[in-house]
Amino acid sequence: MNKPLDGVRVIDFGQFIAAPAATQVLADLGAEVIKVEAVDGEACRIIGIYGEAIIRTYNRDKKCIALDLKDPRGLQIARELIATADIVVQNLRPGVMDGLGLGADAVRAAHPEIVYATVSGFGLHGPSKQRPGFDIAAQAESGIMWVTGEAGGEPQRVGFPVVDAAAAHVFAQAILGAYIRRLRFGIGDEVEVSLLEVAVHLQGPNWGEYLLTGTEPLRSGNGQPAVAPAADIMPTLDGDIVVSAYSPAHFAALCRLIDRTDLLDDPRFADNPTRVANRAALLAELRPAFGRMTRDTALERLAQHGVVAGRISSYGEVRKNPDVEASGLFIDVAGADGARYTSLKSPWRLGSMVEQTGLGAPDLGQHTAELLTELGYTTQDIADLDTDAVVRAAR
Fold first, then answer.
1. Are strands 32-37 and 239-244 parallel, antiparallel or unpaired?
2. Distances from the Cα of 29 to the Cαs of 153, 325, 350, in angstroms?
3. From CA 137, how far away is CA 331, in angstroms rounded?
4. Cα–Cα distance measured from residue 255 to residue 270, given in angstroms and rounded to the nearest whole number
């Protein structure tokens, strides 16, 4: 079975999430992804369980070579690897790749056909282009934290690295677009994505409203500030659900299914603006009805009436969710030591690809000897480079 990117080689100088998660998409599409790390490993390998989780989740089915890029011999190996590549991806500290002579200008001057892709914190053109940027900085400076949290409370971050994850998918999309251009026209391209731009763009509806009205959105906790009931919590006998029923038809259906059609004649809830203005009173009327149901009963009745709702689930509950199980999102892979562990596949499927399975994340330097041999280095060459700590081969 041919995968879409069979035969495509990607050299991945990425670390943490945004770049490795993007190249994970390429690997799942069939590309050969070679992860280049320092001889002592990227930072994720030494920051405990969180770092191990990142390595395992975003480096499946990749090969790993460990190089000292500060040594001319290690730098030469990197150049030789790049010469074999179709795509080069990096998210190192601003200026590092340029300082090594491996930046976009240098690589594409030597190899015009290569797609060279960079993801940065704040973009490559503004005054903050040299600043290091992680997910949390992008959440802060994009407005995400400004609108997240309880009304009158302090700003809150989203409970996971949402910008990193979103940036990875945007990055992969742009890389694939550039690669299709290469296939069509025979020339490479330069791809740029920044966490800040992605973080702003994720808030499209909020920005659309702000650009229309000039009114700053405010933190409002649960519940969407401009429509009601929407994203509002309804406690049930055995847990909470979230309900959205703000269109006239859905609000009427909601009132009917809880036997509160009197609310349709209540002037406080006559239309969406009045429901937003009287949200607290509206919830006080709606919640007692749900408090007499179980989550499953409430969700079944809401679905029957076409009302959007979802159970607020713990991670353990998500893991057992039959829809998640049916999706095959969790997969078993083989680690470098042969032991199997559970990981996440990419959240899509192609008709031509029956399933996404394979190997887990590689150990540091696991494929160093294999890749150097491919480049023409002898066993003695590899041993000497390993002794000199220019490379790290598998132990």
1. unpaired
2. 44, 22, 9
3. 32
4. 12
Kindly tell me the burial class for residue 287, based on how many C-beta atoms sit within 10 Å of its own C-beta (0-12, 13-18, 19 or more). Answer: middle
Tokens standing for 321? Answer: 């969710």
pLDDT in tens, 221-248: 998 888 999 999 999 999 999 999 999 9
If you search the block for the tokens 């690669």, which residue do you land on? 179
Neighbours of 242 (CB within 10 A): 17
| pLDDT tens digits, one per residue of 297-335 | 999 999 999 999 999 999 999 999 999 999 999 999 998
Contact 145, 155 (CB under 8 A): yes
- Position 8, amino acid: V
262 classed as catalytic: no
Beta-bridge mates of residue 308? 244
Q: From 215, 279, 218, select the one nearest 246 (Cα to Cα).
A: 279
3-state secondary structure of 92: coil
Joined tokens for residue 71: 């040594």
Residue 147 · residue 223 · CB < 8 Å: no
Using CA of residue 86, residue 92, residue 94, residue 97, what is the dihedral sign? negative
Nearest to 299, CA basis, from 225, 227, 242, 218: 242
pTM of the model: 0.94
Which of the residues 164, 189, 232, 386 is marked catalytic?
164
Give the number of C-alpha atoms closer than 13 A to the C-alpha of residue 55, restricted to the C-beta side: 23
CA dist 42 and 302 (Å) reads 48
Phi-psi region of 231 (alpha: psi -120 to 50; beta: other; left: phi over 0): left
